[in-house]
Design goal:
Blueprint (H helix, E strand, L loop, with lengths): L1 H28 L9 E7 L10 E4 L2 E11 L4 E7 L11 E7 L4 E7 L31 E3 L1 E2 L3 H15 L2 H73 L1 H30 L1 H35 L2 H32 L2 H43 L46 H9 L3
Parallel strand pairs: 1-7, 2-6, 5-8
Antiparallel strand pairs: 1-4, 2-3, 3-4, 5-6
Helix pairs in contact: 3-4, 7-8
Length: 446
């Protein structure tokens, strides 16, 4: 009994496992993947060219999903697509095409973006499943877009049938014959044109030969001219190198002068705009007008003076004045000549020199007389003092002692050596000769 229960339970578990495995296989075949999320949106087409559910959806040629449902309507067909993964962002302005490819005409949906997105998917602030996705410029979950019909075998067949009908039309063949005839005529004309072009090319070749020779000569001349220009440029460069300091100094001076002029203009602008300056200019202009009037008056006075000088009486007076001045100048010249004659005499110069020397000696003798007079007055004062206060005879005569006067006044008196120089006899000075005699002696010829 127990073994039977185990067998029945095993069979039931096996059946359940089979059913579950079959369901998982069906879910896998339908694209169910619990590890990844997806989003859906709908595209509206005029026709879908035999598309079926499960058709692949490609983005930039890569399969990213499949068609989940096709809903036909009288005017169009709505195709619901599922895109995996949900992190794939598709631009909202992308083109959605229904294309047929392959030998069996498999229908698929291709999504092609018009332009590159301004931001990469990782930089987009949202995803198609987010609540703030609308308005972000990407396809969101549940959006509805407009699709287009792309490559289709039916279109190809219809185009082929239209082309066959066109070739089967008699008018078309007549037009083809006309085109062929015109083409033949054009070919004949092209042949004639080619012969003319050949002749033209021959003549052109001869002309080109002549032109080439002329161009060669011109090229040589241009080369020589270029060499001369090169030499001139080298000379100019050398000249610039040699005078670079002078040019720099000149430019610096010009710049400094410009700065000074600018500063002067800036400093002079307030003066010009000052009312006192304008008033001063007005005063200056009035003074200039007055000066011009005075100049006119002075010119009139000069005219009158010239007229008065042109008078014969005035001319006579001027002549007399000039003669008097001439006589005065002649007298002055004579006096100057006499003075030169006097001062130029060597004897007179010698006598004057002797006179000056005699005057100098006289002055020196006068000074000596004054000194002797002072000496005599000093001696008189000392003698008076000695008479009033006689000194006693010392017990012993020292080196610096003084000898008292003796009883007799004729004996010599020894005084203090400090005062002995006052009593030294003064040498007799020769009395100077009279000035008149000296002048006669000096004036005597050597």
């Amino acid at each position: 009994m127990r073994s039977r229960t185990i067998r029945e339970g095993s069979v039931g578990l096996l059946v359940l496992l089979g059913v579950g495995l079959f369901g998982l296989i069906l879910l896998w075949l339908r694209g169910f993947n619990p590890g990844s999320r997806s989003y859906r949106f709908t595209a509206n087409f005029i026709r879908v060219e035999g598309m079926q559910s499960g058709a692949p959806v490609r983005y930039r040629g890569v399969a990213v999903g499949e068609v989940t449902r096709i809903i036909p309507s009288p005017a169009s067909v709505d195709v619901e697509m599922q895109v995996t993964p949900a992190t794939l962002t598709i631009p909202r302005d992308a083109i959605i095409l229904v294309n047929q490819s392959g030998l069996i005409g498999e229908t698929s949906i291709d999504i092609l973006p018009l332009d590159e997105m301004q931001a990469t998917p990782t930089e987009v602030a949202t995803n198609p499943l987010a609540t703030d996705c609308p308005g972000k410029g990407i396809v969101c979950d549940g959006d509805r877009l407009q699709g287009q019909v792309g490559v289709s075998f039916n279109e190809l067949i219809r185009a082929t049938i239209s082309l066959a009908d066109l070739f089967g039309n008699e008018e078309f063949f007549n037009e083809l014959r006309s085109v062929a005839r015109n083409t033949s005529d054009a070919a004949a004309g092209v042949a004639v044109l080619s012969r003319e072009v050949t002749q033209l090319s021959s003549s052109l070749e001869r002309e080109l030969t002549t032109l080439t020779g002329s161009a060669s000569a011109t090229t040589l001349a241009i080369g020589r001219t270029a060499d001369q220009f090169g030499l001139t440029a080298a000379q100019i460069n050398t000249l610039l190198d040699e005078n670079r300091d002078d040019l720099s100094a000149t430019l610096g001076n010009i710049n400094a002068t410009t700065i000074e002029i600018r500063n002067l203009a800036a400093g002079f602008a307030p003066v010009v705009q000052d009312g006192e300056f304008i008033q001063s200019l007005g005063t200056l202009s009035s003074n200039a007008a007055t000066a011009s009037a005075n100049a006119a008056a002075a010119s009139q006075n000069l005219l009158n003076l010239s007229e008065s000088l042109g008078n014969s009486e005035n001319i006579l007076l001027l002549q007399q004045t000039l003669e008097s001045a001439r006589a005065t100048f002649q007298n002055a010249q004579k006096i100057t000549a006499d003075l030169d004659e006097l001062t130029g005499d060597p004897e007179l110069r010698y006598n004057i020199r002797q006179l000056l020397d005699g005057l100098s000696n006289l002055v020196s003798y006068t000074e000596q007389l004054q000194q002797q007079t002072q000496m005599a007055e000093t001696l008189t004062t000392i003698e008076t003092a000695l008479e009033l206060h006689p000194t006693q005879e010392p017990q012993a005569t020292g080196e610096r002692g003084a000898i008292a006067p003796s009883a007799t006044p004729n004996e010599p008196v020894l005084l203090n050596p400090h005062y002995s120089h006052l009593f030294q006899p003064t040498p007799a000075m020769p009395s100077p000769a009279p000035l008149s005699a000296r002048l006669k002696t000096n004036s005597a010829p050597d």
